[in-house]
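Format notes (please read before filing issues)

Several people have asked whether sequences and structure tokens are stored in separate files. They are not. Every record keeps both together, in the order shown below: the sequence lines, then the token lines. Line labels are part of the format and must not be stripped during preprocessing.
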Amino acid sequence: MKARLTLTLNGDAVDLVCDGGDTLLEVLREGAGLTGTKHGCELGECGACTVLVDGEPALSCLLPALECDGASVTTVEGLGDRRLHPLQQAFAKWGGSQCGYCSPGMLMAAKALLDRTPHPTADEVRLALAGNICRCTGYQDIVDAVLDAAGSR
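Then the structure lines:
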């Protein structure tokens, strides 16, 4: 059954058509063509699909799209405004991204943290990113990048 979904997506009002059982991840990638949000485990365990829904981090692979009707959704594509976001700049500077697969989810979880806690401690960064798995960096470069973006480094 097809359904209509209205979102504010990366600051723009959009109307999308989806199947009633689609996840937000499927709608973002296939309906809206925003492929920055990654398919990872599809079980909510890796964090690669993290987006912000009304400012809060959400695992889009588990979230029914229709539950987001009327919500504001921000994906990694919504971070930069023709320039890299300070988090993206810091990830590049500190080597917080190697293969890059986890980076969109890490960036979105980090953005949610910095929106709530502009100057977090390293422990707060680790806690905020605990739901995101990276197999390449060893995490310290990511923590350093978030602290740098916050001006705490």
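For reference, the curators noted about this record: The first strand starts at residue 2 and ends at 9. The mean pLDDT is 95.
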